[in-house]
Amino acid sequence: MEIVRKRRVSDILLGFYLLSHPGPVFIHIIGVSVFTLLAAWPRLVWSTVLLVIAAHTAMQISIAMINDYCDRRLDAAGKPEKPIPRGLVHPREALVAGLFMIVLMVLLLLPLPPLALLVSLLYLTLGQAYNLGLKSTPLSGIVFALAMPLIPLYAFVGVGRVLPFLLWLVPVGFLLGVALNLANALEDLEEDQAFGARTLAVILGVRGSFFACHLLILAGAALIALLMLLHLVPANPWIILPILVLTCISTGGMILFFGAKKPASTRKFHFSWPRSPVSCLPEDGC
What we know:
Elements: H1 9-19, H2 22-40, H3 46-70, H4 72-78, H5 91-109, H6 114-131, H7 139-147, H8 150-158, H9 169-186, H10 189-194, H11 200-229, H12 237-257, H13 267-272
Helix pairs in contact: 2-3, 2-8, 3-5, 3-6, 6-7, 6-8, 7-9, 9-11, 11-12
C-alpha cells in the first residue's frame, strides 16, 4: 500500500475528488436532473429544481465516500489506486466527509416537501446498508433494485407532484436495478469471488449473470409494453414503441458482443449498455 506521508493541498483535493466517485455520481446527477425537469415542466421553479438536484448529489457523494471507507482494506489489496490506499485521504477523513454530506443533504431537503426527505432517507438507508455489508451478499442486487425506482419518485415528490404513473416505476425499476447490479458486478466478479464475497453475480457465475442481465432488461421492456397495452399507465405509444424497439436492438447487441467467452476487459463497457432507453419512464411521453 502506497502511503503519502506529507500531503500537498493538491493531493488532498484530488483524493476527495476521487473519493466522491465522480463518474457514477455524475450519471446519477444527469438522471435526477432529467426526471426533475420532467416533473417540474412547464412550471419550472429553479430554486426548487436546484435544491432537488443538489440534495440528491450530496446523498450520492455520501454513499460513495462511505463506500470507500468501508472497502478500505479490500481496496488496499485489490485496488491500490483508490484514494485511501494511496494515502491521499485518511480513513477518518473519508468517514467524516461522508457523514457531513448526509447532514448537508438533510439541510437542503428541509425547504422541500416532507415526502422528498422520506424518500431520500429510504434511498440513503439502502445505499449505506449496501456499503456496510449487504454488497457482499446475494441481497446486494435486491438493495440496488429497490433503490432504482426511488430516483424518479424522489424527483417528482421533490417538486410537489405525485402522479399515478409513479407506481409502475417500482416493478420496472426493480427489474432494471437487478440488471444494472449484475452488469456492474461482472467487472469485479473474479475479485469478489477470490475475497469470499457472496454477491448475486458470484452465485450466478459469469454466464448466469450475463444471461440474467439480458433477460431482466427484456422483461422490463415487456412489462412497459404490457402496461401500455392495458392502459394501466399513461403513455404515448409513438414514443414508447421506438424506445422498446431500440431496447431490444441494444440487448441483441449486448448478447452478440459481450458474454462469458469474451475478454473480461469488455465487461466495463458492457456495464454502460444496460442503461438502455428502456430506463426512460414516460408520463404522456418520455
